Amino acid sequence: MKLDIRDITKLPNLLTLVRIALIPLFVYVFLWEDGMIQADIDMMEKTNGYLLAAIIVVISGLTDAADGYIARKFNMITDLGKALDPFADKLTQAAVVVCLVIRYNEIWWLVAALFTFIVVKEITLLIMALLFLKKGQDLGGAKWFGKVSTIVFYVLVIVLIGAPSVNTLAAAIMIGVMLAFNILAFSLYMREYMTLYKQRKQENDNS
């Protein structure tokens, strides 16, 4: 992997940077509405902070989809983008989960379980991907089940962030669904890696 700082000017990477820039804005708006910080801005007093925070998550999700589509469609895939994109995803997910812990402190343990599993999953998949890339095997990017898990995460997060009236039981069910989809995606990714490992081992044995 060769990172070229000049690739930062390519549109997909600029969109990824926008996604990273949205993270502190999301956290600020959410914490302001939650009463944890003060904002001496007249416009903020007339704004539904939870709804605004949910809109920011929507914009973040749309830029995530757009940068990947543009990169593939117009052949703008770069090593810098491959590094920045997952970094932006994980930062966004971490910020969202922390805010969910604050909102639903009665079930903080369930949100913490979701966060912990996401971290373990991503670190494990990153290590596996690097091991295969070191041996010259390209894994071909995200699989459909990984994309479905991400979509489920964003949809349910938008509901949880934007609708403060959601009760604890409903929130627990939605967080449980997110956790279940992450577990499913992780299991299927590991199956893919094991299949690739067996194929490579068989090729080496036959050579």
Written account of the structure:
The protein has 207 residues and is mainly α. 78% of the residues lie in helices and 0% in strands. Helix 4 runs antiparallel to helix 5 (108-134). The chain starts with 10 loop residues before the first helix and ends with a helix.
Instruction: Label the structural class.
Output: mainly alpha
SSE arrangement, N to C: HHHHHHH
Silhouette? globular
Number of helices: 7
Helix content: over 70%
Show unreliable segments.
Answer: none
Oligomeric state, counting identical vs distinct chains: single chain
Ends distance: 28 Å
Strand content: under 5%
Q: Can you give the mean pLDDT?
A: 84
State Rg: 19 Å
Strand segment tally: 0
Largest sheet: none
Can you lay out the helices and strands and say which pair or pack?
Blueprint (H helix, E strand, L loop, with lengths): L10 H23 L8 H4 L3 H25 L5 H25 L4 H27 L9 H19 L5 H39 L1
Summarize the structure.
This protein is an all-alpha fold and 207 residues long.
Keyword list:
207 residues, 78% helix
